[in-house]
Design a protein that fits this description.
Strand content: 5-15%
Largest sheet: 5 strands, mixed
Number of helices: 12
Low-confidence stretches: 86-123, 369-377, 395-403, 424-431
Mean pLDDT: 76
Number of domains: 3
Helix content: 25-40%
Order of helices and strands: HHHHEEEEEEEEHEHHEHHHHH
Structural class: alpha/beta
């Protein structure tokens, strides 16, 4: 059985194979190109296995021609040579068996570094394979070029040793993914799903926000449990706080659930790829999974949660006409509400029910209600209007509160007035 040897070059093996095929055809026996393609695929060494797998996934083997297959294999062969041997820019130096023939460049006679290879009499003259591994490319038809400089004339040495004279140098347009090529959609139903709490945790950082929060934070970080879809949010002044926050989150959820975090999935942000973060994950036994660069789809759970939370927060701020500095409070409220809302990822339960194992109470949530309070409970507004007292926001570790946002009974207000040292205030009790 004819097979390609490890030290044998692609063109050497295919020459022998095509010689056998041509002799079979001379005897009148039908031997289609499809069988030749299949023979080449099953008879080449294991070093071409990755390339063959890529060809099988991207091409229809029934439509693949012999020339196309050989061109792809030669390109892969040249890349293997470049990885193992030292290369000089502009020329390939090959002296070992199984490498490409030697190609030289002299000072008084410039030679190109292209190689042409013809394997079958029925070649497609209009085809031009760009992925050939060559430094420069040649075309037989001047119409392929959109620009042509005919003053550039040089000698080109071909693969069979002959030298031809080029007629010029030009620029060609090649169709890329901006044209007909496109990315395949990401699979929806093949993603991994956890079977227990904290088996997989998704995380991502959103920000920076244009307006800092009341606590001067510009970022927030989300942690989503894949099994229950329970979400935790923390607010950050900078991305560098991601590691301390993750330690805090890890201690909290492991204490609540009795389980340990096994996998953490994030993007390739510097806050997640720092040496300190990686070292902590190794010491804690956490398998840190990073997505492929420029592929946010692989961290789609966290990315989608970021969008959902931000959209809810914007709607709440717009509905109540609150300033943008309250974005952190709106984000926290959005995450809190999502805990009690159903999701397709957890069937028959809400995230908070799946996490704690019992249904939460929703009595404290009011929708569409208003509370009417008598004017006498708002007498403080009159004093503010008459500029008899001045109210200021009071900072605290929790939040900044405005006393006007809460109802204040008359007796409580008088006590508060005495504490402030305000005197000579006349108030009216009206209903």
């Amino acid at each position: 059985m004819l097979k390609m040897q490890e030290i044998e070059a692609v063109h050497q093996y295919t020459n022998k194979l095509m010689d056998v095929v041509n002799r079979i055809r001379l005897h009148g026996e039908e031997f289609p190109d499809r069988r030749v393609v299949e023979k080449i695929i099953v008879s080449i060494p294991d070093k071409f296995e990755s390339k063959i797998s890529a060809i099988e996934e991207s091409c229809d083997l029934k439509e693949l021609t012999i020339i196309e297959l050989i061109s792809k294999l030669q390109a892969h062969e040249q890349r293997l040579v470049m990885k193992t041997d030292e290369t000089t820019e502009g020329a390939f130096l090959a002296r070992q068996k199984g490498k490409q023939p030697a190609i030289s460049s002299e000072s008084n006679k410039t030679m190109g570094f292209n190689q042409a290879y013809q394997q079958h009499q029925q070649s497609r003259k209009g085809s031009w394979f760009v992925d050939s591994g060559c430094t420069n490319h040649m075309a037989r038809d001047e119409n392929f070029f959109i620009e042509m400089d005919k003053s550039v004339i040089t000698n080109v040495k071909l693969g069979n040793g002959t030298v031809v004279r080029s007629q010029g140098k030009g620029t060609a347009v090649i169709q890329t993914k901006t044209g007909k090529m496109h990315k395949l959609p990401f699979p929806v139903n093949k993603s991994f799903r956890a079977t227990q709490k904290l088996e997989l945790v998704h995380t991502d950082i959103c920000g920076p926000m244009r307006t800092p929060s009341l606590s001067q934070n510009r970022y927030f970080i989300l942690f989503i449990d894949d099994f229950t879809r329970m979400t935790w949010v923390y607010f950050l002044g900078s991305k560098g706080q991601a590691l301390p926050v993750f330690k805090k989150f890890k201690a909290l959820v492991e204490n609540q659930s009795g389980c340990r975090i096994k996998k953490l999935r994030s993007d390739n942000g510097k806050e997640y790829t720092s040496n300190d973060f990686n070292l902590f994950c190794e010491e804690a036994g956490v398998d840190h999974q990073l997505t492929v660069s420029y592929t946010p789809q692989q961290n789609g759970i966290a990315e989608r949660k970021n969008r959902t939370v931000m959209e809810m927060a914007r709607c709440m701020l717009a509905e109540k006409k609150l300033p943008k500095c309250f974005w952190a409070e709106a984000v926290y409220t959005a995450v809190y509400l999502l805990h009690g809302l159903p999701t397709k990822a957890v069937k028959g339960m809400t995230p908070i029910e799946a996490w704690y194992g019992k249904k939460p109470s929703a009595d404290h949530l009011k929708h569409g209600r208003t509370k009417h309070i008598k004017i006498k409970y708002h007498v403080i507004r009159n004093y503010v209007r008459d500029k008899e007292i001045v109210l200021q926001h009071c900072d605290s570790e929790v939040q900044v509160a405005d006393i006007l946002t809460k109802a204040l009974p008359r007796q409580k207000f008088e006590e508060f007035r005495d504490m402030l040292g305000v005197t000579n205030i006349k108030s009216e009790e009206e209903c």
